[in-house]
Design brief:
This protein is 41% helix and 19% strand. β5, α7 and β6 form a beta-alpha-beta unit. α1 crosses α8. With 156 residues, it is of the alpha/beta class. The protein is elongated, with a radius of gyration of 19 Å. The strands form 2 sheets. A 4-stranded mixed β-sheet has the order 1-7-6-5. It has a 3-stranded mixed β-sheet with strand order 2-3-4. The site of adenosine monophosphate (AMP) has 14 residues, from β3, β7 and α8.
Length: 156
């Protein structure tokens, strides 16, 4: 459990936690890999979200996932970019969350993930919580806590 005063301070930044879906680069599950390759290269994100036509969250896609699928024994077969779709190579087992303000869960999952996709109860994509924003929140709390609270050691 996170100490309640620390949690309260962290939640003061709650409006910054989630980048809304409208500002997040996505690709459609039916897009060709050709298109996805361009989006990932141009946007320079390590991984992006995959959605379907109804904005349901479907998975995540990185350049490494694409190049891995293009690899043949001694070369990269770029012709496959037109033959395959995002659905053929995307990752579907990344953790997703429904509650962007559950700091305990976010901290736990973000040890291994640079961002978490947020979905609603209908599985529609709502936005992402990034490790960057979470770290900013932790930094803010560590710096501001002493200005608001006096800590007394239980050992004295
Ligand atoms: P950050 O913590 O800001 O470096 O973001 C971590 C990861 O989240 C990035 O490498 C991207 O994969 C993803 N990401 C962050 N912001 C966006 C965005 N606006 N659109 C799509 N993906 C994003």
């Amino acid at each position: 459990m996170i100490e309640e005063h620390l949690q309260e301070m962290m939640l003061q930044r709650r409006q910054k936690f989630m980048i809304p879906a409208s500002l997040v680069a996505t690709v459609n599950v039916n897009n060709s890999l050709d298109h996805a390759f361009l989006v990932l290269t141009k946007d320079r994100y390590a991984k992006i979200i995959v959605v379907d036509n109804e904005n349901h969250y479907r998975g995540q896609l990185s350049l490494a996932m694409i190049t891995d699928r293009l690899l043949e024994t001694e070369r990269i077969n770029v012709n496959k970019l037109n033959e395959l779709t995002v659905a053929d190579v995307m990752q579907t087992d990344a953790p997703v969350i429904q509650e962007p303000f559950d700091i305990e869960e976010n901290l736990h999952l973000m040890i291994d993930q640079s961002f978490l996709a947020v979905v609603n109860q209908q599985d529609q994509f709502c936005g992402i919580v990034t490790r960057r924003e979470l770290l900013k929140t932790v930094s803010y709390t560590l710096h501001e806590f002493g200005k608001k609270y006096k800590v007394i050691s239980k050992n004295k």
